[in-house]
Structures are given as C-alpha cells and as structure tokens.
Write a structure and sequence with these properties.
Length: 146
C-alpha cells in the first residue's frame, strides 16, 4: 500500500492519445460496419441491445419487430446508438455516438431503398418495423495506439 497517497493503487500514465472526431469522420466510420448498440429507457431500467443498421440519406436505419420492447420504448423517444471498433492488442479503437429520436422510416423512403441498402438483422424472426435516427447529433472519439 502506498503510504504517501494512502491508497492501495499506484497512479500511472498509460495509453495512447485520445482524439475527438469531427462529424465527417464520424459519418465515414459509421459506414464501415453494420452492427452497433441501441440504448433506450423502459419504465423500469435502461437497456442496451445489439442492432444491425445501415446509413441512408442522413439517417441511421434499423429494423425490429413491431410488437417488442424496442418498438414500445424506442419508437418516438430519445435514444442513443453507439458504434465502435476496438483493437485490444494495439489498445486502440474508435467509437461514434448518435443521439436523437427514433422515428418510423417513411414508406416512400423504404420503397426508394435498394435491396442491398436495407439492414439485415442477424436475429431470427419477423422484423417489419423500420426505424431511423437522424445523423444530426454525432460525437466520436478515437484512441491511438501507444
């Protein structure tokens, strides 16, 4: 135990440089992967669930069932969606956070999407509800290797 600090741990400097990302870099990183985590609130607790997504027309679009918890508590409510990439060996990575209201994807937008543009959920089941979050509130960070 360190008697000088009166604590059981020794403070140390570790890690790489932390960088706040510009909005354009956040947008570029969003299209490099197709899985993120949707955060929303239920009356009892906060939830974070993995979700497949695509970026279309300045929105992040995902699919869910029309009768599940996501449909009840994320639709028409403020949510957060986080996408990231981590390299544990290099101790580096990036994350992008989208904040906004999850809203129905208009039918006209859905009809205009090409088949390859629609999000393809990994989970089995009917996923007929398309929701979108506008890409207006984006923040991101990158940790560079040591």
């Amino acid at each position: 135990m360190s008697s000088a600090a009166g604590t059981w741990w020794e403070p140390a400097y570790r890690g790489g440089r932390l960088e706040n990302l510009e909005v354009n870099e956040c947008r570029r990183l969003l299209i490099t992967t197709s899985v993120g985590r949707l955060g929303y609130s239920t009356p009892d607790q906060l939830r974070i669930v993995p979700m497949n997504y695509v970026v279309v027309d300045e929105h992040l679009v995902f699919r869910t069932s029309s009768d599940n918890e996501v449909a009840r508590f994320a639709r028409d409510h403020r949510v957060a969606f986080e996408v990231d990439h981590v390299d544990e060996f290099q101790q580096s990575g990036w994350s992008v956070l989208i904040s906004g209201t999850a809203e129905d994807l208009p039918r006209a937008s859905l009809r205009a999407m090409d088949a390859g543009e629609t999000p393809e959920p990994w989970a089995a089941g009917t996923r007929s509800l398309y929701l979108r979050i506008p890409l207006t509130q984006l923040t991101g960070r990158r940790v560079h290797p040591v």
